[in-house]
Design brief:
The chain is of the alpha+beta class. The chain folds into 2 domains: 2-248, Beta Barrel (Thrombin, subunit H), CATH 2.40.10.120; 255-329 and 388-404, PDZ domain (Pdz3 Domain). The chain has helices at residues 2-14, 42-59, 237-248, 280-284, 303-311, 350-361, and strands at 63-68, 71-77, 83-87, 98-102, 108-117, 122-127, 140-141, 152-157, 169-180, 189-192, 204-206, 211-222, 226-236, 255-258, 261-263, 272-275, 291-295, 298-299, 318-328, 389-399, 401-404. The strands form 5 sheets. Strands 1-2-3-6-5-4 form a 6-stranded antiparallel β-barrel. Strands 8-9-10-13-12-11 form a 6-stranded antiparallel beta barrel. A hairpin with a 3-residue loop joins β12 and β13. α1 crosses α2 (42-59). The chain starts with a helix and ends with a strand. 34% of the residues are buried.
Length: 405
């Protein structure tokens, strides 16, 4: 009942909010009712509702939708130059890719993907269009290390982007476990009961002072009923602080480049024994038997040398790969031999031909069991056991894949 009541309260509070600049907006301290497990009465409820409304006015303008290719998620602007925190899976892929940032009022701006951590599920993007007023409104980030179980929080998201008469969603709930490690997953998350649905991923989790304390990662799981939209996991804000420089630099944290070939054992050169189907080398057109001579513009003599150069690249980097390949030689077709017209004897009569055929038919036929003479056997044509080949040098453009270390 409590969850439904405050979820409804949050949605009502979000309606008809005006944009406010968090740089100049100052929020009052949370009311005393915010420290209680439940409001003691109508006055506590009204005070809490008023404060949620004030926080929402501050945080809605910086809650955005990120459209990357055919997918979308949410995010939050956290710097005046347009840095955006989001979930790693919202921006997974090649850093530097373009994306569209949809503001709460429906206005769209250009941006790009920065770095992400697939294991932690942290990610970052950047607005590349200039801010209309010179600086983007942005949210403050608070440390997540001091969060406590039972603490009231607010979740926002902008699923699917702008919809008329529907501002970014607002939901109110509490922290279940401030430091939650899912079994068999690793990593540490904030477990909360604020409802999350598809498209909320990457949206911010706020404390009652209007500061970002986490980013929505995914819907949690209830051991009794399975997936539960009221048991969710957020990436703690402290993880973003720890990875800040690498995310800004566009790194894929914990990821390594992947080529997808296996070297031939015992080969003195960089000969490919096999190519992994569907991976980078296969997509580019490399085949088993190819001998790699250059990788990323540098000559390689052995498979180990190629692997060393490959590890120096970033995931999704495009590299030039030069190989030597044995290809069949296209045999030239023989020139057409013109057949000479047989000269017809003008003195020959139609009956002559039949007579000739008759004479030919007078030859004795071989009896069953007679061995054919050697002269009667068809002569076997000599054929090469292997087709003729030639060595060609071919260059491929390969977009490396991603492998988790």
């Amino acid at each position: 009942m409590r969850i439904r009541l405050f979820a409804l309260l949050g949605v009502v509070a979000a309606a008809g909010l005006a944009a406010a600049d968090p740089i100049t907006k100052t929020l009052p301290e949370p009311p005393a009712s915010a420290a209680k497990a439940l409001p003691a009465g109508i006055d506590d409820l009204k005070a809490f509702q008023k404060h949620v409304h004030e926080v929402t006015e501050k945080v809605i303008p910086v809650t955005v939708c990120l459209q990357v290719g055919g997918a979308s998620g949410s995010g939050v602007i956290v710097s005046e130059d347009g840095l955006i925190l989001t979930a790693g899976h919202v921006v997974s892929g090649k850093p530097g890719r373009p994306l569209t940032v949809v503001m709460p009022d429906g206005k769209k701006y250009k941006g790009k993907v920065l770095g992400f951590d697939p294991k932690v599920d942290s990610g970052m993007a950047q607005l590349t269009d200039p801010a209309p007023g010179g600086k983007w409104p942005y949210a403050e980030i608070a440390p997540s290390k001091d969060l406590k179980a039972g603490q009231w929080v607010i979740a926002t998201g902008h699923p699917g982007g702008y919809k008329k008469d529907r501002p970014p969603v607002v939901r109110v709930g509490r922290i279940g476990q401030p430091k939650f490690s899912p079994p068999r997953e690793g990593g540490e998350f904030i477990q909360v009961d604020t409802t999350l649905v598809g498209g909320d991923s990457g949206g911010p989790l706020w404390d009652l002072k209007g500061r970002v304390i986490g980013i929505h990662s995914r819907i949690g799981a209830d051991p009794l009923v399975g997936a539960s939209i009221a048991q969710n996991m957020d990436v703690p804000s402290d993880r973003y602080k720890e990875q800040w420089d690498r995310l800004v630099a566009g790194d894929i944290i914990g990821g390594a480049p992947y080529f997808g070939v296996k070297g031939m054992e015992g080969a003195k050169d960089c000969k490919i024994e096999s190519v992994t189907r569907g991976e980078a080398a296969d997509k580019a057109g490399l085949k088993a038997g190819d001998i790699i001579t250059k990788f990323a513009g540098k000559e390689v003599a052995t498979y180990d040398e190629m692997v060393k150069l490959m590890k120096e690249q970033k995931p999704f980097a495009e590299v030039a790969v030069e190989v030597k390949r044995e290809v069949p030689v296209e045999e030239k077709k023989d020139a057409k031999v013109e057949k000479k017209d047989e000269k017809k004897d003008p003195t020959a009569k139609d009956g002559d031909k039949k007579e000739t055929e008759k004479k030919d038919g007078d030859k004795p036929k071989a009896k069953d069991g007679d061995k054919p003479k050697d002269s009667d056997k068809p002569k076997d044509e000599k054929k090469d056991s292997k087709p003729k080949t030639e060595t060609k040098t071919i260059e491929f453009k390969v977009t490396l894949g991603l492998r988790m270390e």
